[in-house]
Automatic annotation (TrEMBL):
Pfam family, one: Peptidase_S41
Protein name, as recorded: Tail specific protease domain-containing protein
Organism for this UniProt entry: Mycoplasmopsis mucosicanis
UniProt keyword Signal, yes or no: yes
GO biological process: proteolysis
Composition bias, Polar residues: 117-126
GO molecular function, one term: serine-type peptidase activity
Biased composition (Basic and acidic residues): 72-87, 127-136
SUPFAM superfamilies linked: ClpP/crotonase
């Protein structure tokens, strides 16, 4: 159907100007640790990646929007006008081919000559223009109605099995499509009702105003989704007011676009051989694209397995729980043993191509570390990367064992970051889609490289975790039971107190004895206990032990920072998908008296923060902020990184994965921000102010072992 557009473009392009809309936006964050392992996986060839190329435009690691250009007419075959034809052969786009940019619709005068349902013509040969029939591009010509499906929902606190939805199949490539407004209405308890009431329709576009001048535009002609704020991912208006959180007072909450990205941002689906269909004011999108942009970004996923349709929270399929029963909660909804897809052992060639295009769109637009990944191989995009790493053939294979191996190499060998992991198998080729979150690894010498973990960071993470856990409990002897750091949150030795906590929790409870607490209340209670136990006021130093803290709630992390500084805290976040950054400046009411003043900070202590390889994600951010505070010393070993929040998503073949998503966070460095390069990069970890060997982490006089010459 897209072929017929070029003829109309030829008729109207000369007289139509371009337009740009300017606005600003905001962003959110959620993160947590992942520890996943693999067994019996052969690594790829030993071919070394080429050195990154030097590019004058690398100051901004995301390529700018191209200038509008007029494409040359193509030599496409004629459309049959809806008559039955042979199934088109699947094809992959040329990764070096430039795609046409935005072309404006015809003038109002010419528009009136067309029917309300836009009629388009095939781009014929020069000698056959008058013979080419008009084709009305309705969904009947592009999509096949495959009926209504039960829509089970268990996401964001909303659960129901009584809803249904109509699904469609692309006549071009068999991809599954949804009516955008219908699926949003079925998820109204998540998005809120009335979000899409304000819609404007034009020749090839449907434009929504979500409030506060927040625009969401679906452009059928160019197959683009346009927007001016990342708040559209939640179908919400941009919020220019500071957020309201318990015991936090925001002094600044400012969102801006990076230089060069001040206007409309866009996702170009044409580059990935995907279509947007607009008919009678309705928008039809590939289900995979709707899920990624409007569900995965909100920490739930919408999935269809050829039988059943479901929306479910990401943590129902959480690798963090290290138990198959949590993973099975996701796939039990689909009941693979009885669904039609379980009877199909292998996907079709076209389904694998669709899946490959989705991977390319996902990594190019939403993988937070894509620029770093591609630069290692002198690649410009995912298609280029997959070709140069020889992953393309396996990713396109119809054999589940082949493409699963490709996923393992991609996630664990090439990405090699702790936020990225594989949670489930695909829907094909297995009686169960469950994937063990902790496979058994053979002990002893490695005779075959397939016995080793592909991910070096996961491997080091597991090694240090085991080491420090053992170090913590070395004093479990009855004579030293009170010194066992695994048994106690607080510990006092001479003039030094230690507070141990291994995650940032934000549930608001405070029952510490039963382990039911959030981190803000834990630190308050720990400080009260130290004051009670230290009757002679000997304690001069407090060590916050986050050496095994894998992250969690960033709100809880922000609250805890308030205990170690009396100055306002500054954190900057950025979003690679929307090319925006937000600067937050805030204070914390640590004593809960309703005031934000000097009484919220305890001045009599010297503060230390103990970090290591397993200090990750939100804890990594805590370490980065703490290092910039003049009254705090960060000690230990380099932290584990994890600058970008996780993005949980599902591939079209049913494989559930976590990636380092588009939202990155770091302490503000005081610079004027024009590009991503002006923001501190902490994905690889934070160096301590003073080094401390792992062997001395749990010495009770650990401060005596600090190497103050090694920073």
């Amino acid at each position: 159907m897209r072929k017929i557009r070029r003829f109309i473009r030829k008729l109207f392009i000369a007289s139509v100007p371009a337009a740009v809309i300017f606005a600003s936006a905001s962003c959110d964050f959620l993160s947590a640790p992942i520890n996943n392992a693999l067994e019996n996986i052969l690594p790829p060839s030993t071919k070394k990646p080429s050195e990154p190329g030097k590019n004058d435009e690398d100051d901004i690691p995301i390529p700018p929007v191209e200038n509008p250009v007029e494409p040359e007419p193509g030599k496409d075959d004629l459309d049959t006008g809806g008559k039955e034809t042979k199934e088109p052969q699947p094809s992959l786009p040329d990764q070096h081919q430039k795609t046409p940019d935005q072309v404006q619709p015809p003038s109002k005068k010419d528009d009136k000559k067309k029917s309300q349902n836009t009629q388009k013509r095939v781009n014929p040969s020069k000698n056959d223009i008058d013979k080419e029939p008009d084709v009305d591009e309705k969904i009947d010509n592009s999509l096949k109605d495959i009926g209504r499906k039960n829509f089970n929902i268990d996401a964001r606190g909303f659960s129901t099995s009584s809803r249904s939805i109509t699904l469609y199949e692309s006549r071009k490539n068999n991809d599954i499509y949804v009516d955008f407004e219908e699926i949003v209405s079925r998820l109204d308890r998540i998005y809120g009702s009335g979000r899409l009431d304000s819609a404007q329709q034009s020749f090839w576009k449907v434009s929504y105003d979500l409030g506060n001048n927040t625009k969401l535009i679906f452009d059928e002609y160019n197959d683009r989704i346009q927007f001016n704020s990342d708040s559209v991912f939640a179908l919400a208006p941009a919020n220019y007011l500071p957020p309201k959180e318990n015991f936090i007072k925001f002094l600044l909450n400012k969102t801006q676009s990076f230089s060069g990205y001040e206007g409309l941002k866009s996702f170009d689906l044409k580059k990935y051989d995907m279509d947007i269909i607009v008919d009678n004011g309705k928008v039809y999108l590939p289900l995979s694209i709707f899920n990624l942009i409007f569900a995965s970004n909100n920490y739930f996923n919408v999935v269809y397995n050829n039988d059943k349709f479901s929306a479910i929270d990401y943590d129902k399929v959480s690798a963090y729980n290290n138990s198959p029963r949590y993973t099975s909660a996701f796939y039990d909804i689909f009941d693979n043993n009885t669904s039609s897809i379980s009877k199909v052992q292998t996907p079709t060639k076209q389904q694998r191509i669709n899946n490959f295009h989705y991977l390319a769109f996902l990594f190019d637009n939403f993988y937070g570390l894509s620029h770093k990944l591609y630069s290692q191989f002198n690649a410009t995009n995912f298609y280029d990367f997959a070709s140069k790493t020889e992953l393309e053939e396996k990713l396109l294979s119809s054999k589940p064992e082949d493409y699963r191996r490709a996923y393992e190499l991609l996630i664990y060998f090439y990405l090699n970051d702790l936020h990225s992991s594989i949670v489930t198998k695909s829907f094909y080729g297995y009686k169960s889609a469950l994937l063990r979150t902790r496979p058994k690894i053979r002990r002893g010498a490695i005779k075959d490289p397939g016995d080793a973990l592909l991910s070096t960071v996961h491997k080091e993470h597991a090694r240090v975790y085991k080491l420090l856990k053992e170090k913590r409990q070395y004093s479990a002897h009855p004579l030293y039971r009170d010194l066992n750091l695994n048994n106690k949150i607080t510990h006092i030795y001479k003039d030094t107190a230690r507070i141990v906590f291994d995650s940032f929790e934000g549930d608001g409870s405070s029952n510490i004895e039963n382990g039911q607490y959030d981190s803000f209340n834990l630190i308050r209670a720990a400080l009260e206990k130290i004051a009670t136990d230290d009757k002679e006021n000997n304690v001069k130093n407090i060590v916050l032990d986050i050496s095994l803290n894998g992250g969690g709630s960033v709100l809880a992390m922000q609250q805890v920072l308030g205990f170690i500084t009396q100055k306002p805290i500054e954190i900057v976040s950025h979003n690679i998908a929307s090319h925006e950054f937000t600067l937050n400046k805030y204070s914390v009411d640590t004593n809960k008296d309703g005031l934000f003043n000097e009484k919220d900070y305890i001045t009599k202590y010297n503060w230390y923060v103990l970090i290591g390889q397993n200090t990750f994600s939100a804890a990594n951010l805590f370490a980065h902020v703490a290092k910039k505070l003049p009254n705090v010393k960060v000690i230990g070993q380099k932290s584990g990184g994890g600058m970008f929040a996780i993005l949980p998503t599902v591939l079209p073949d049913g494989t559930f994965i976590y990636l380092s998503g588009p939202n990155g966070f770091s302490a503000y460095n005081g610079k004027n921000i024009h590009s991503i390069n002006d923001i501190d990069y902490t994905e690889n970890g934070v160096e301590p102010d003073y080094k401390l060997a792992y062997d001395h982490f749990y010495e009770h006089n650990l401060l005596d072992y600090l190497d103050k010459n090694a920073k």
